[in-house]
Write a structure and sequence with these properties.
The complex is a heterodimer of chains A (about 350) and B (about 525).
Chain A: E1 4-8, E2 11-15, H1 21-27, E3 51-54, E4 61-62, E5 73-75, H2 79-95, H3 110-118, E6 145-147, H4 157-166, E7 172-174, E8 181-183, H5 200-204, E9 210-212, E10 224-230, E11 239-245, E12 250-255, H6 271-275, E13 290-293, E14 296-299, H7 302-320, E15 325-328, H8 335-349, E16 354-355
Parallel strand pairs in A: 1-5, 15-16
Antiparallel strand pairs in A: 1-2, 3-4, 3-5, 6-9, 7-8, 10-11, 11-12, 13-14
Helix pairs in contact in A: 2-3
Chain B: H1 6-10, E1 13-17, H2 21-24, H3 26-37, E2 41-45, E3 58-60, H4 67-80, H5 86-92, E4 93-94, H6 96-103, H7 108-115, H8 119-131, E5 135-139, H9 141-144, H10 149-162, E6 172-175, H11 182-187, H12 204-214, H13 226-234, E7 240-244, H14 248-251, H15 255-264, E8 267-272, E9 284-287, E10 296-299, E11 304-308, H16 321-331, H17 341-351, H18 360-363, E12 368-369, E13 395-396, E14 415-420, H19 436-440, E15 445-448, H20 450-455, E16 463-467, E17 472-479, E18 487-491, E19 519-525
Parallel strand pairs in B: 1-2, 1-5, 2-3, 4-13, 5-6, 7-8, 8-9, 14-18, 15-17
Antiparallel strand pairs in B: 10-11, 11-12, 14-19, 15-18, 16-17, 16-19
The chains are: A alpha+beta (about 350), B alpha/beta (about 525).
Amino acid sequence: MQTIKAILDNREITARPGQTILQAARDNGLHIPALCDHPAITPFGACRVCLVEVEKNPKLLPACTTPLVEGMVIHSRSPKVQEARRAVVELILVRHPLDCFSCPSNGKCELQDIAYELGISESRFREETDVQKGEHRLEDANPFYVRDMDKCILCGRCVRACDELARYHAIDFQQRGVKTMVHPPIGKDLEHSDCVFCGQCVQLCPVGALYEKASVGQGRPWELKKVTTTCSYCGVGCELTISVNERTGRIANITTDYSSKSALNEGRCCVKGRFAWQFVHSDDRLTKPLIRENGSFREASWDEALGLVAYKFAQIKEHNGPDAMGFFSSARCTNEENYLFQRLAREVVGTHNVDHCAHL
Amino acid sequence: MTNDFASIKEADVMLVIGSNTTEAHPVIGSWIKENRQNGKKLIVCDPRKIELAKYADVYLRQRSGSDVALLNGLMHVIIAEGLYDKTFVEERTENFEALKTLVAAYNPERVSEITGIAPEDIVNAARLYAKGPNSAIFYTMGITQHTTGTDNVRSVANLAMLCGHLGRPGTGVNPLRGQNNVQGACDMGCLPNVLPGYAKVADPAVREKAKSLWGVELPLSPGKSLVKMLEAAGEGELKGLFVMGENPMVSDADTNHVRHALEALDFLVVQDIFLTETAQLADVVFPAACWAEKDGTFTNTMRAVQRVRKAVNAPGEARADWEILVSLARKCGADWNFSSASEIFDDLARFVPSYAGMSYTRLEQGAICWPCPNTEHPGTPILHSAKFARPNGKGFFSPCEWKAPHEWPDEEYPFLASTGRLLYHYHTRSMTGRSATEKFVDELHIEINPVDAEQLAIREGELLCVSSRRGEVRGKAKITEKVPPKMVFVPFHFGETPANALTAAAIDPTSETPAFKISAVRVQKG
């Protein structure tokens, strides 16, 4: 395939035709800060954080929407770029509340990261009356995620996630100028819109404008262990990332990985995969073997319960033959468990009376 | 699925029949919509005006239970207009003449009478699908959960073979599996008539393998299916039952009949993560670890084997299902020494030829689609690319006549009820009912057409009582044109108001799949 060569920050980079400067930088392992861009969705050019200097070009260009051209010489850290980038970030910070201490996105906030990278602690342009504090009603009527539009930086990632990944277009930019906001169609709240709560917008939100309800207080990003697994709901088998707080031993949230090479779902998922995990820690989980005695259950040791079942199996087999036993396996359990289950029926008990809910 | 997910985006025409994809398989639904929005064509066949119908180039609203007639009608047009793939039919299939003769009687006018679809829509859909150049079919329970489920599936396969839409990217016969590992449970031989890898229980070669790997001589005749086991329990013939991770009290047809069967058992063991409706009837309950608490593999709808990894510890003394099975087998005197899921996988890979090339080490690099016969094999994302899985490698047309369903609305029970899934819940709700999803949808809503609602003087949210010859359920009316007049849709997730109180224990004679999509019912203000 044809490749394009260019120079970025004094290093030679190669790219496929049609790639933007930012995409090429990422593929070559070089970092250009950006907020509105995300690899899973189309470039948008809204935030201007990724401005770069391209030699022979009088103006700074957004790396996210400028195609890389053969022979380009690009500077992403020149004094001119850094000055412009600082101004852009400081302008975003004019309206953004700085309650990072209690913000659910602290530690994974990309605005915070860029401010840190540029050494910005305060915005020169900020006046307290400009900050969006209580300007928008906190929208938390649904059980899945919260919309805190005071924190929104209008990067439009959520709009594109809904359009391009979920394929719903439940939200879009509403109103104009300083009143611009992301919202379902005018007059509708989220719960009565086309939103199906897949939460892909939540995952792509770079700040704390969208956050998962159940994850609040469950652990900061840096104290979470990530485990890659496969969803246990429908047969699509989405690859999911379970984040576990090792201190509490509990799940903090479930996300997907849009950059995973192994994910058949390409990072997509639905409301069940992302938000329906609280059952794992439900108070009424079974925790001990139970034996029925005089019409009600009593707790038993594993040894006793297993012994009783083995004894009963043997009795039925002896008096009525192995085909008087039946085995219902589970389409919910793993391959390993289903394999052992039918071995138990066929090899240990001696019957082919084994089936599962394949038809349901 | 004969094909993989990548194939969805490569299809020029997508035919979705009996699948509410955006609710039951949301991610696949999003790909179908994406492909449609990129200019590819979509045909949707469903009695309910599901979300995908909105995007369809042709939407066919067939009467429930008329699928075979519809599919035969499509094939009639395709053959009559010479649109079928003559080379494919000639080189790769058998029994075409029988198909041709049978579908000759299914002209669009006759099919229109059976299905209620306008003849020109049948012609349009047929031309669109046949012309492709790459057309893919997607279906689920709307095809299988009928007394003619097997005929429905055969007819789908006939259509795909007739047009040669198999074995290439962008084509295929793609049943979307409803449960995370229903494919794997079948692959692993949790079926009464086949051993792991689908060899018939009487097959001498596989019996020899069982003898050498498991050290036992297996019984020669197949066992009973789930439906037949419940029947046998009710008749006192089956004495003991071991249920692992299933809740037949809610998920199976005719709830009252299931309860009677389970109560008639001498001994019921249930292994689950919650005290489900079924577990409450048990003599012994084993507490199991859930999916986030154990290692293993699931095989998804495209036959891709993927890793499941332990993230958190199981509560209390709960143990992984495989650990419980190993302990129980040992108590029963078997010499099982598995100490990890990985070891069990190696054992099953020795038994199942299509998994033979897989191991946890390989799966670390990503999913592998079966068949994967050896460690060098990359897996098989697309089946039937050169030949079909029959001794002579040819696909066999099995022409099917349309048969009327087991039950049909009459004067006494004038409505048709279908059961199905909702986006926000999963099966018997033992998981989603204890998660955020429950706070969003926490009770049964029954879909009813505005015309019927008006006649019955029922307003949105008022209680409806739906009753069949088996039983009744009550739920709030959801007035919507999604269902046609004289049809109600009853989601089956709600154990307290079980949709399966309505359904008959009628089954497809071959697959023994219950006919959940058709029950004749009465609808009243509840």
